[in-house]
Amino acid sequence: MATIVDFRAEKPNWCPGCGDFTVLAALQKAAVNIGLEPEEMVTVSGIGCSGKLSQYMGSFGFHSLHGRSLPVATAVKLANRDLTVVAAGGDGDGYGIGMGHFIHAMRRNIDITYLVMDNHIYGLTTGQTSPTSDKGSKTKTAPEGAVEEPVHPLQMAIMAGCGFVAQGYSGNLKQLTELIEKGIQHRGFSLINIYSPCVTFNKVNTYDYYKANLVNVDDDASYDKTDRFAAIRKIEEAEENVTGILYHDPSKQAYDEVLRGYPEQAIAKNDLKFTREQWEKLAVQFK
Amino acid sequence: MIKDLGWKVGGAQGEGIDSTQDIFALSLFRLGYYVSTYRHFMSLIKGGHTNGKVRITSEITGHHGDDLHILLAFDQETINHNFHELIDGGVLIYDTAIKDATVPENDKVNICPVPLTEIAKEAGSPIMKNMVSMGVTAAIIGLTPDDFRSVVVDKFGGKGDEIVDSNIAAIQKGFDFAKENFSATIELPARPELKSERLYISGNDAVSLGAIAGGCRLLAQYPITPATEVMYQIIKQFPQVGGTVVQAEDEIAAVMMSIGANYTGVRSMTATSGPGLSLMMEALGLAGISETPLVIIDVQRSGPSTGLPTKTEQSDLYTMMYGSHGEIPRIVLTPRNVEECFFFTMEAFNLAEKYQCPVIVATDLYMGMNKQTVASIDFDKFKINRGKLISDEQLAELEKGAFKRFDVTPEDGVSFRSIPGQKNGRFVAMGNEHDEVGVEMEEPELRVKQMDKRAKKLVNFNDVAGATYVGAENAELLLVDFGSMTGPQREVYEELAAEGVSVGHLSIARLLPFPTEEIKGYINNAKKVLVTEMNSTGQLKNQLKQFINGDHNKFESCLKYSGDPFLVNEIYAKAKALADSLKKEVTL
């Protein structure tokens, strides 16, 4: 059995106090709790502070391009369905340049878990407006306050047919670990949006802010996480200041389960032998 | 020139022109002839003019031929656009259902008006006018209705004997009508000896089959003319070999998926055309620096931007060779005929894994979408080589975390690669510069070491021959081309050689690593070098100038970028003029 130490790689160089430390710790704990071995797991990330997660996580990793973690993660899972695949990125990475892939990965229902470290700001490029920056928030690129509506990832995911939609918070390692475990165990695409404060560039969406405002639906026994419209109502009423599993539908079949001709055995484990007999079968249509 | 027969059918797009062309070409192929086809079509679904040409020869060619002997017109536009191509003694067959048909005055062409639609109606359905026209054609070129039977059975057998019989009857009726009403005949070339293992196949289909035989098991692609057929073919065949196809949301996703699959140990590719290739440039660099194998098929079309989506060109050469920021090693192969589309694609997977870098296979619409006879495909000579994959045993011997995925010590610049799932093989593939273990870093010395390591990979590359030469030793006139232009240019070469010109033909099979050593002798010995390519700036010619020292004034270009493929005569005229100018120099 692997331990936390087995899932540790390089020492992170995030700013002291960064919310991403908790995300990494939660992912490591979740992997251990599920009983994964480091070589059975692949963490694929995009670019930005969040993108560095793949280097610090002791699993196999792919630190890809800005906004492009999901197509890579999709292919890793399709190439070897025996692997546990986690994609990770930030709000700029995933909901800005990567928005197209985000919607399509959910539509396909690929069996991967997507962690978005949402700090409402571009961190590594030093503090510009991000797709989730609150309307009116002042940044280097919106000194008078952002005029655009922020994107609403939770509502979008539910409407796009995502079967597991949750939100976590870097100030609550225990809950975040549970969410990641359940997300990984969900067969299909799971989105976990994580409020992960940027202590350097975002002075509004801070730990104190979240402590004061977040409501945890996991504590609410009356909350029905199978009702997608109730989920959207709840998220909007709370102005997205919620944590927990907001929507879960385990009945949807994952992409690789419904594909015609998709092999039982992981494609990566099949040998590449191609026989004369197979060739004759292919060639006959050209004779 | 090769003795041939050129036959063309034209009509409105959506009228079954493609299938008419296909039935004719496949029938002649099965009789043992070599066929070479060309589809002229527009970027719309219905309406507009479309036509399909079939060239029939008794030897193999890579060109659809200049001459037109028989034109089959389903509408007036076909006559307007194509009549002028008919040679003296040629035949125009047109449907009398064309109202007030007007035919240009020309007493050297045989005009055969046939009530194609009417006869088809009598035979059961007006849509069988194409079958009636097969019968008319058969009567003119000395075939029998029975010569079309096997194709009719294959195409319509699934719909029942009745449908087959009525189609055969339609062919017979057309045949009888022509025999009664027309005396024009056109002679077919000599029928070659029928050899087994020949295929009637397009470049796109050959690429697809080559990919499957080469071990590709995940295709991620976004639809784009003229590369879409690759996806169709692979979707059809993958269930038999256990692979999967993803229709990606865009070309960026397609190439990233292909990279992701290769990283996971599954041979994967994407196929696209110019606009899609442009979108893939950032990912190409990622594959290069992360040393992840990648195969991209670029079926070139006319650019720039969306350009002419249904027309051919060879103008992505700079993009393939130099596209993407920064510097990475890469391999660019340029199949010169349909057979090479198969073998080069197969080999591309070996090369991508052997050198852990991107491999681009460059075809074009002309070769990709048109079918022709391929002499033989013997894939037995092909072996799968997965390159430096580290074994589980090797990994077990290492100390934990000591695996150097990007080890700089190997002389050939290629380090061992592990695959997710391998214990103790953990590493991070990344677009950032990294050290030998794979940790992101910015130290100048280590950066230089990693750059140099990657650059070493292709220094001694000799896996695929860079070029083929035929012709006189020390030929004065050298004809150079790449890709699909090798077919027509070979005919020009043969014509000139038969005339006694001191000529050679050099066809480039690989753009990167550029085959400088292999070709510089031929270039330096020649007095004039004519480079034929389908673009407006002479991209290949400029590469020759860049890579080969010597007299750059000897280079001449033969260029076409109208969207239509070259005629052999257009190249011949240019080459002949150069040959004549050389002769004059000698006499002066």
Q: What's the number of helices of chain B?
A: 20
Terminal-residue CA separation of chain A: 56 Å
Task: Quote the CATH topology of the largest domain in chain B.
Answer: Pyruvate-ferredoxin Oxidoreductase, domain 3
> Beta-strand percentage of chain A?
5-15%
Radius of gyration over C-alpha positions of chain A, nearest whole angstrom = 20 Å
The mean pLDDT of chain A is 96
Q: How would you characterize the largest beta sheet of chain A?
A: 8 strands, mixed
Largest interface in this structure: A-B, 58 and 64 residues
Query: How many individual domains of chain B?
Result: 3
H/E element order of chain A = HEHEHEHHEHEHEHEHEHH
**Fraction of helical residues of chain A:** 25-40%
In the CATH hierarchy, the architecture of the largest domain in chain B is 3-Layer(aba) Sandwich
- How many E strands of chain B? 21
What does this structure look like?
Chain A: Keywords: Iron, Iron-sulfur, Magnesium, Metal-binding, Oxidoreductase, Thiamine pyrophosphate. Chain A: Residues 198-262 form the Pyruvate ferredoxin oxidoreductase beta subunit C-terminal domain. Chain A: InterPro entries: 2-oxoacid:Fd_oxidoreductase (IPR051457), OFOB (IPR011896), PFO_beta_C (IPR032686), THDP-binding (IPR029061), TPP_enzyme_TPP-bd (IPR011766). Chain A: Residues 47-194 form the Thiamine pyrophosphate enzyme TPP-binding domain. The complex is a heterodimer of chains A (287) and B (588). Chain A is α/β, with parallel strands linked by helices. Chain A has helices spanning 20-34, 53-56, 69-79, 91-97, 99-108, 153-159, 173-185, 207-213, 228-237, 255-258, 276-283; strands at residues 41-45, 60-63, 84-90, 113-118, 164-169, 190-195, 215-216, 242-248. Chain A has 11 helices and 8 strands. Chain A starts with 19 loop residues before the first helix and ends with a helix. Chain B is of the alpha/beta class and 588 residues long. In chain B, the strands form 4 sheets. Chain B has a 7-stranded mixed beta sheet. A 6-stranded mixed beta sheet of chain B has the order 2-3-1-4-5-6, with helices on both faces. In chain B, α5 (149-156) packs antiparallel against α6 (161-181), α7 runs parallel beside α8 and α7 packs parallel to α13 (338-355). The radius of gyration of chain B is 26 Å and the shape is globular. The mean pLDDT of chain B is 96.
